[in-house]
Specification:
single chain, alpha/beta, Rossmann fold, six-stranded mixed sheet, 6 strands
């Protein structure tokens, strides 16, 4: 048996519905976001989980909660799994940011690995803190299934780091809609992507909601 990580993005929030940048804002799930969390728990409660790691933001904790309750498990909260800090862009849409912070937005869009949102975090910084959590998991668990509940940018940055994709391309190479799960298995040849942004556990109505 090998170690397998399941990267679950939180359910819908008001910010994701509006396609607004939401990193350090501690937004709650919408009613539909809570449905997404319940749907994941229903589909994956029979999976043999070794542990559940979770960003401490309320949208991620709430997404993990139905599965934790069903299995009587406690999530292990890690700050390293928090979303990118968008700084002065928090709560605003890309259209507004591109007008008001034009130069910063152009630089970040070209290479978010080494350019940060105004007053925010670079992708390489997120990779460093998030991958420390992955290393902790690999050190603590030789095999089995581990759930990692996190955020859109953070999950994509972790996937890039694991799969050898330039972290600066995380926004343009990998999808990660709300409520989706991506699966990476650690094999003798290294990390193997088994699924990317899978949402088959959600019904058509939830899959087709507006937003990101």
């Amino acid at each position: 048996m090998s170690l397998t990580l399941y990267f679950l993005r939180h359910g819908q929030t008001e910010c994701s519905l509006k396609n607004a940048y939401c990193g350090s804002i501690d937004s709650a799930l919408t009613a539909e976001g809570e449905e997404m969390a319940e749907a994941f728990a229903s589909a994956y409660s029979s999976t043999a989980w070794k542990a559940i790691f979770c960003s401490p933001m309320q949208r991620t904790v709430a997404t993990a909660k139905p599965l934790c309750v069903a299995l009587s498990m406690q999530p292990q909260l890690r700050d390293g799994l928090k979303e990118i800090n968008y700084g002065q862009w928090e709560g605003q849409t890309p259209d507004k940011i591109s007008r008001e912070y034009h130069d910063d937005y152009i630089a970040w869009s070209a290479d978010p690995a080494w350019y940060a949102p105004t007053g925010g975090e670079m992708a390489v910084t997120i990779a460093s803190r998030a991958m420390q959590v992955i290393e902790e998991i690999k050190h603590s668990y030789d095999d089995g299934n581990i759930l990692v509940v996190a955020h859109k940018a953070t999950i994509r940055i972790m996937l890039c780091s694991l799969l050898g994709i330039d972290v600066g391309r995380f926004r343009y190479r990998l999808g990660c809609p709300v409520g989706s799960v991506s699966i990476v298995q650690f094999t003798s040849h290294g990390p193997l992507l088994q699924a990317l942004a899978d949402r088959t556990h959600l019904d058509a109505r939830l899959r087709n909601l507006l937003g990101t």
